[in-house]
Predict the structure of PAZ domain-containing protein.
Amino acid sequence: MSMRGGSMRGGRGGGGGQRGGRGGTFRGGAGRGPAGPPPIFMKGLPVAQPDPEVTKHENAIVAAPKSASAGLSLQDRLPARPGYGTVGIHITLRTNYFKLEANPDAALYRYTVQFLGPNTDPSKRLKQRCLEMLIADAIFAGTPPATDYANTIITSKKVDFGSEDRKEIVIELSNPGEEPFPSKTPAVQFDRSIAFKELLDYLHSNLPGAFYPDKADAIQALNIVLGKFARGSHGMIVAGQNKFYMTQAPEMEKLNLGGGLEALRGYYTSVRTSVARLLVNVNVATGAFYKDGPLLELMRHFKDDNNAQDPRFNAKLSAFLKGVRVETSYMKRSDKKTTIKKVKTVLGLCRSPAGGHSKQIKFEYTEPNKPTRNVTVEEYFKIVYNIQLKTPFAPVVNTEAMLGFAARIPKDNAEFTVNKGLVLLGLKSGQSQAQLARLFNGTSYGLRLPDPQMLTVDGRILPPPTIQYQQSFMPQPGTWNLRGVRFCKPTALPSWALVRAGNPKFEFEQPLEEFVKGLKNYGMKYTPFKMTTNFSLMPEDTLESRLDNFFTHISAQRITLALHAEM
């Protein structure tokens, strides 16, 4: 069996700047390097000034509440900003936003998709396959359709579905060499049109109370359109609504996390409304994925990074495998020559016996013209498919280093965004110039990214505040911590405990002395800790009750702080 490369275990972490340290190790990522300030993106190059028209609108909006201050009432929630743009040192900042132009004479047309028949809510995979075939239907030949591959289709022209604006289409899902599927009948219903002029008028309004009722629908439609190129790219994984990960070289960037997982670097993109303009936000994203390959190999990777002697190992492995999609090809069609590919989802390891292998797991099976009997999984494959399992002692499954890779300095993320991200997302010319011309010229959706350079905004370096503890304290540049300060009214620590799980070899005396020294430096009053509690974490089925008993015990002792000594 082999896994389909892209089973995502859920997003784990996201792109962002680092706090003083570790860069990714893939393709020359930034290591620790010499001490000093982080490098600056496009340092020394000319910086475009913020759009003066946008600045004019922003100033008008800020000034509007001042002229209406006499009309303030108790219902006004937020105060005005009298010091807006006046304090500190003026600077110009680059942002990870890009201007999106919309043709005011154009519009988008939204259609909803519902599935008819006995199964009105098919699986995510089945929906995606149906929508792929649906937008390729001849009914959309006159307009480029974009979809979220769930239940929405966006077009640049209204499609003629008759007087009821509704069309039912029968889709045959079976492909040669794959498991046969019954046909599905999605019903496509016109929902509404979204005129760019109304959206742009709202964005250019200087009235503080301006309101556009279709704003959420407009943003959703724009996100679907801008995601069309990336969703249709070969080798691209879509996680959630707007996260895209490339799984093929040379664009793929990954890092082995161990235990059968790997981190992929990708992008998050979304359309945002702003003062007098539409913006596209592009961020670097990082996600954890299962490694592509044989399922048994994935289990070996997990075993290599975990203690197989741990009584909870099988439970951990079962939880790790839950949700993995596997592809099988051992079933044959009636001609006994061609195989059928089937995709299944792992629910976990067999429970009886826990982690049992194919020689242990039994179930009832009835052969043609023979009585029902119990057979093992190994016997079943031999009888039905004439397959002798190569690894019969492997566990039977039921079917149905991230931080270092993700946390990078802003300069690396900025270069990654403008040099690779915009091209892969179809927002900047590259190898895909022909597709871009079809997607984002004025005759398709009426959208255009005029300049693939980061937008700039005005900023202010504000003077640091003076913080009053027991004495005045000036915070260090860019930080605000408690080093070298004493509290004005330090609290007391009358009773505290040290907790030791199991019998760790961890020598806690030195760290404990440092902790007590820190309390003294802050001016806190404390008493020596009066107990050390040892408790076992095994067996698993009593862990919760042991913890409950422990917290009940320290509560009775009026312990206000419990420190855990790690192994």
In short: The chain has a mean pLDDT of 74. Residues 357-394 form one domain. DSSP finds 13 helices and 27 strands in the chain.
